UniProtKB/TrEMBL annotation:
One of its GO terms (biological process) is negative regulation of insulin receptor signaling pathway. Residues 355-377 are annotated as: Disordered. This is Inositol polyphosphate-related phosphatase domain-containing protein. One of its GO terms (cellular component) is endoplasmic reticulum. The lineage of its organism: Eukaryota, Metazoa, Chordata, Craniata, Vertebrata. Belongs to the inositol 1,4,5-trisphosphate 5-phosphatase type II family. GO terms for molecular function: inositol bisphosphate phosphatase activity; phosphatidylinositol-3,4,5-trisphosphate 5-phosphatase activity; phosphatidylinositol-4,5-bisphosphate 5-phosphatase activity. Residues 80-415 form the Inositol polyphosphate-related phosphatase domain. It comes from Aldrovandia affinis. Residues 364-377 have a biased composition (Acidic residues). InterPro entries: Endo/exonu/phosph_ase_sf, IP5, IPPc, SKICH. It comes from the Eukaryota. Gene3D superfamilies: 2.60.40.2840, Endonuclease/exonuclease/phosphatase.
Length: 545
């Protein structure tokens, strides 16, 4: 097996990511090396819950197929409601549990459209961190292995040492998630303001695992931003935490004229281990209020609640009621608060908040009113409502309990047509070269780095392809309506299977078109040699029967 770094591989177009690729000895597959790191604990992912919800995947494929025919949107109407499921969890450098079905609420009768998962303190020892950059970390692998079989695709992720942010979408929505950008900023001592130095002495020592990572994207034309933060620890640094958050907001920029900063987005979701504590109360009072379910007695002294009363910019962020027990600090694998010698006070350190961009102030007398865009907020409304806010106490690998937030996004879509329609020409097999055809349905800034990938049904992410063809380099014919792209038979899987084609836009960092599923025929060589797939270390190999 030859391990080779491809300088012009599609993954190389993504800044900040390093990928190593394996060319199989058969010469017919190219697979990410990270697949070889799938832990053996993933073998038990075939739980009754997952078997039940896997049936939904067939519906997802049917919806995606309808979306391609005639260029219709996945919902069939311009106004729709979408469910967003968010998770924040400080995992305390632990390895993931074997099953995250309840964390993702896979038993829910209401299908989720988007998942946003923010983790803090993912194991980031030097060797582990380098390996994770090349091969994917164990947490990402688990979430992809859980969600991909039921029709979800990882649309973006970003890692900064212990901070990890993952975004998943139902496959039917993927062509309408565009303009994806990621950024990060480390919390630095230089962001300390005068108020921090007055209220917090000595100042906290900056650590590499503190800061924020964000993903911004356009969802049916509406700009959303997800910001996962890990702020300074300890009771006395409440003001420092606010300064760190301000610094993160000021330092994170995006390459976009309409939304260059985090707060320019239509909706911002701010979540993570924000580390705010419960002030003043002693341990006995805290535990008494928690054990008697009188959590409301603690709300007034929650530091984030207190800081929101002082800081106008924090008042723009909304949060559901803290009706769940404080999520820190627990003995691992138990529901007992810290019994160690330190006996940390319980606190709501792990939070999920959101902000809908406020309308600008009316023009002053004598001023000209601003130009109203055709797609302004009145014409394309968006409403955010929270349906659930709770902790998942049944997970014990960390001294924090994960927090879950479920939201409903009511919006009028600005885009209802995929940018690209594509399909497989004729029969496909490894016996002959194949042709993919696409047509542009809506104008967009294409690039010589755009490519079309062949994916197995149930693919995990844009990088989880079988093979790819450069849109420009491999073009063989072009008419006013359709463009044909050549795919070598050497790159088509010998055993065939159910597949889809996806058009990836380098400028938008996203898939902008997905074909209907089609069948790749088993090749004559596979039949004659009796080749069968065998899973070796998480990677499909071909062996003689």
């Amino acid at each position: 097996m030859l391990i080779k770094q491809h300088d012009h591989h599609p993954a190389a177009v993504n800044p900040g990511r390093c990928w190593v690729w394996i060319r199989g000895g058969s010469g017919n597959t190219t697979e990410p090396l990270q697949d070889t790191l799938a832990p053996s604990s993933f073998d038990n992912l075939d739980t009754p819950n997952l078997r039940r919800v896997r049936a939904e995947y067939a519906l997802t494929l049917e919806t995606a197929e309808k979306m391609q025919v005639g260029g219709c949107s996945s919902q069939g109407a311009s106004q729709g409601g979408y469910r967003l499921h968010m998770v924040t969890w400080n995992v305390g450098t632990a390895e993931p549990p074997s099953d995250v079905a309840s964390l993702l609420q896979l038993d829910s009768q209401n299908a989720v459209d988007l998942y946003a998962i923010g983790l803090q303190e993912v194991n980031a020892t030097p060797l582990r961190f380098i390996a994770d950059l090349a091969f994917e970390d164990s947490w990402s692998l688990l979430f992809m292995a859980t969600l991909a079989p039921i029709g979800y695709v990882k649309v973006s992720s970003i890692r900064m040492q212990g901070l990890l942010l993952l975004l998943f979408s139902r496959q039917a929505h993927v062509p309408f998630i565009r303009d994806i950008q990621t950024t990060s900023s480390e919390a630095l001592a230089c962001c300390l303001s005068t108020r921090s130095l007055i209220h917090s002495f000595p100042p906290p020592t900056p650590k590499g695992n503190k800061g924020g990572v964000s993903v911004r994207l356009s969802f049916y034309g509406h700009m959303l931003c997800f910001l996962n933060c890990h702020l300074a620890a300890h009771m006395q640094y409440a003001t420092q935490r606010v300064d760190e958050f301000e610094y993160i907001l000021d330092s994170q920029d995006f390459d976009a004229h309409n939304t260059p900063h985090v707060l320019d987005h239509r909706v911002v979701f701010w979540f993570g281990d924000l580390n705010f504590r419960i002030a003043d109360h002693g341990m006995h009072f805290l535990r008494s209020a928690i054990n008697s379910s009188r959590l409301n007695l603690l709300w007034e002294k929650d530091q984030l609640t207190m800081m929101k009363k002082k800081e106008p910019f924090l008042q723009e962020f909304e949060e559901g009621p803290l009706s769940f027990k404080p999520t820190y600090k627990y003995d691992r694998f138990s529901e007992n608060y810290d019994t160690s010698g330190k006996k940390r006070k319980p606190a709501w350190t792990d939070r999920i908040l959101w902000r809908v961009k406020p309308k600008g102030p009316p023009p002053e007398e004598g001023e000209e009113p601003p130009q109203v865009a055709a797609d302004d907020d009145d014409e394309f409304p968006l409403k955010v409502s929270q349906e659930a806010y709770r902790s998942a106490t049944d997970y014990g690998v960390s001294d924090h309990k994960p927090v879950i937030g479920s939201f409903r996004l009511e919006l009028k879509k600005k885009s209802e047509t995929p940018l690209v329609r594509l399909w497989a020409e004729g029969d496909w097999s490894a016996d002959c070269d194949a042709m993919a055809t696409y047509s542009i349905l809506e104008p967009f800034a294409s690039s010589t780095w755009d490519w079309i990938g062949l994916y197995k049904v149930g693919f995990k992410s844009a990088m989880d392809y079988v093979t790819y063809a450069w849109v420009k380099d491999d073009e063989v014919s072009c008419s006013d309506a359709n463009v044909k792209v050549y795919v070598s038979k050497e790159e088509i899987p010998l055993l065939g299977g159910e597949c889809v084609l996806c058009y990836y836009s380098s400028n938008m960092q996203s898939i902008v078109g997905i074909s209907a599923p089609f069948h790749v025929q088993e090749s004559r060589a596979a039949i004659e040699q009796g080749l069968v797939p065998e899973n070796i270390n998480g990677l499909d190999k071909l062996t003689a029967n």
